[in-house]
Amino acid sequence: MTAPTQTTSPGQTSDGSPLETIKVNPKQDAGIERRMSGPGRIGVWIVVVLAGIWTVVPLLWMLLGSFKSSADVTSASPKWFFAPSLENYAGLFTGANNLGPYIVNSMLAAGISAILSLVLGTLAGYGLARTEMKGKRHLAFWIISTRMAPIAAVILPLFLMFRVAGLIDTLPGLILAYMTFNLPFATWLMQAFFAEIPPSIEESAKVAGCTNWQAFWYVVLPLSKSGLVTTGILCLVFAWNDYAFASTFAGPNSQTLPIAASQLVTQTGVDWGQLTAIGTIVVVPMVIAGLAVRRWLVTGLSLGAVTGE
Fold first, then answer.
1. In 3-state terms, what secondary structure has residue 8?
2. What are the two backbone dihedrals, phi and then psi, of residue 242, each rounded to the nearest 5 degrees?
3. Which of 37, 114, 118, 140 has the fewest CB atoms below 10 angstroms from its CB?
């Protein structure tokens, strides 16, 4: 016997044809719930707890180490109880170790490259999602393959081109370098989000008198808010944490926070106190940004996983 189904119809297009229907099989949903009960659910919780410990403990240890004195942070036995001190943070902003220019460079390079990648990737992804042409799937895969290429394979040709163009040790050069791997990712991800929006919604807006641009701006973009937030945050995190491109294309005038952290590891030793402090400065802004937009971030990542594009 065929399992009962529930059918939802969001409406009709301008020519009267029905929109895409979503069929939900209650029997399948009940089966999934049964499979998640008992030992399966316990196993899931064990994996979640282990993943939480694996993720949180190093960050917590780094945060605690940033408030320890040099003697406490290099102690042979871990010290859980200590007198908090800000000497590591103060040392990062005094003398020759002034971290201010590194923070400014990181904010400008990561922020501007993420914004430009999001804007251009949104336009390119929308065009790719709405264009009907032969080989569209191959083109989409080629775009994301440029993001998956090893950095070592592209960094030398880029360095030669940047040197000829005079972009080495400049912020525009660093922004352009970040966009070489953020823009393909943004295009591919936004194309997947736009493909989930029925074209009939835009057709209805055009019937109501909207132009193509108005339908895109006032109808499509608000519906893809979770995709925009997800793509923007991921592009920002990729650029903020980058070390390979920054160590190649940046110089004394454009070095970023990851470069500053690497300079604390020298042949004479490692300043663990300041290293944990600068690690905290690098991690905290991205954690706050992720928590601030976690609702759209989870929705966007889930939708991207469902599309399978």
1. strand
2. -65, 140
3. 37
DSSP 68-132: S-HHHHT-SS--SS-----HHHHHHTSGGG--HHHHHHHHHHHHHHHHHHHHHHHHHHHHHHH--
pLDDT, tens digit (0-9, with 9 covering 90-100), for 290-300: 887 777 766 66
CB 129 within 8 A of CB 195: yes
State the Cα–Cα distance between residues 52 and 29, nearest whole angstrom: 28
Query: In the predicted model, what is the mean pLDDT of residues 217-243?
Result: 90
| End-to-end alpha carbon distance in the chain | 34
Burial class, 212, CB count within 10 angstroms (exposed 0-12 / middle 13-18 / buried 19+): exposed
Q: Where are the beta strands (DSSP E) in 140-242?
A: none
Q: Can you name the residues that pair with 12 across neighbouring β-strands?
A: 18
Return d(Cα 139, Cα 190) in angstroms, integer.
14
Closest by CA to 21, choosing from 32, 30, 29, 12, is 12
Q: Which residues contact 22 (CB under 8 A, 6 or more apart)?
A: 7, 8
Helices and strands, counts by H and E, the chain:
16, 4
Tokens of 251: 């110089």
CA dihedral 84, 89, 90, 94 (to 10 degrees): 160
Extended beta strands in 93-251, E state: none
Q: What is the distance between the alpha carbons of residues 271 and 273, in angstroms, rounded to a whole number?
A: 6
pLDDT digits over 272-285, tens only?
A: 888 899 999 999 88
In 3D space, the residue among 100, 259, 247, 232 whose CA is nearest the CA of residue 177 turns out to be 247
Give the whole-angstrom CA distance, residue 89 versus residue 280: 10
Q: How far is CA 46 from the centre of its chain?
A: 27
Q: Band of the pLDDT at 170, cuts 50, 70, 90?
A: very high
Q: How many CB atoms lie within 10 A of CB 251?
A: 12
User: What are the b/e assignments for 213-238, b being 16+ CB within 10 Å?
Assistant: eebbeebbeeebebbbbbbbbbbbbb
